[in-house]
Amino acid sequence: MRSIIHIICVFAALLVPALAGAQIVRKDSVPLHWAENNKKVIVDGDTVSMIIPERNYGRYDRGLFNYLYLPKGDWAFGFTASYGELNTDDVQVLSMLKNVDFAGKMYSLKPSISYLFRNNQSIGMRLNYTRGTADLKSLAVDIDDDMNFSLHDVSYYQQTYEVAAFYRNYVGLGMEKRFAVFNEVSLDMGAGSSRFKRYYADQLFDTRTNITTVSLNFSPGLCVFIQDYVAFNVSFGVFGLKVRNEKQNTNGVDEGSRTTSGANFRFNIFNINFGLMVVI
């Protein structure tokens, strides 16, 4: 019995100093080496940390930091433009497509403004104007004696206006404030019209369509400061939800309306945006 009491006393003598020197760490506390690597800077007269503290919801500290990239209170003005054009004249493909005369072009303009309501986090609005035209003057298809036809004087025109509200969260990749990745969530609402003209049995058919769209988009991207206040950014559309309503009439006759919806869960090569941003 005395030996058991002696063992308990020895164990308590070893355990109490260990508990006294132990440090209690909360799950949402900042890692110890965060304070060792952190630096202070002055932004608009206030001293702020170069490393933004975040809750650690994981079990292990991986040593990843979110460096200060855009400070709270700044305004960002962005502009994105794109233009594409395709022309063909008397193209022949494998003796099946002949007399191809096609011309098409599309361009878009996207100005935006955002406000940094927190460090590395902004909200803003963006306008989008898109216009595209396509003219097929002639096209002949000759596969065999039973499968051949020709098209001529076919044209298509479309223009859309969109307004978007977005939230963007930046993650700085270094204390130099040069590179950052971001994730953008935007709610887009737009309206537009299109016109499709073609001949069938020597009769002109003129179809006009009024378009209304609502979409929710998630777009990650990369931002690089090329000067002190000018940054270049590129974003990729990887996920989105979209609802589209169309109302059509052909030669003045109402053909009704239809509503379609869908979701995109893949990388879209046709939704890559390049632009410039000025931060003041």
What's the alpha carbon Rg, rounded to whole Å? 30 Å
By DSSP, the count of extended strands is 12
Arithmetic mean pLDDT: 80
Element pattern in H and E: HHEEEEEEEEEEEE
Q: Sheet with the most strands?
A: 8 strands, antiparallel, barrel
What percent of the residues sit in helical stretches (DSSP H or I)?
Answer: under 10%
Instruction: State the end-to-end CA separation.
Output: 78 Å
How do the strands and helices of this protein lay out in sequence?
Elements: H1 2-21, H2 32-37, E1 40-43, E2 46-49, E3 75-93, E4 97-118, E5 121-144, E6 147-172, E7 179-200, E8 203-225, E9 230-236, E10 239-250, E11 253-264, E12 272-279
Antiparallel strand pairs: 1-2, 3-4, 3-12, 4-5, 5-6, 6-7, 7-8, 8-9, 8-10, 9-12, 10-11
Please, could you describe this protein's structure?
The protein is mainly beta and 280 residues long. Helices cover 9% and strands 65% of the residues. The chain has 2 helices and 12 strands; from the N terminus they run ααββββββββββββ. The strands form 2 sheets. It has an 8-stranded antiparallel barrel with strand order 3-4-5-6-7-8-9-12. The chain has a two-stranded antiparallel ribbon with strand order 1-2. Strand 4 and strand 5 form a beta hairpin. It is elongated and about 80 Å long.
Summarize the structure.
The protein is mainly beta and 280 residues long. Helices cover 9% and strands 65% of the residues. The N and C termini lie far apart (78 Å).
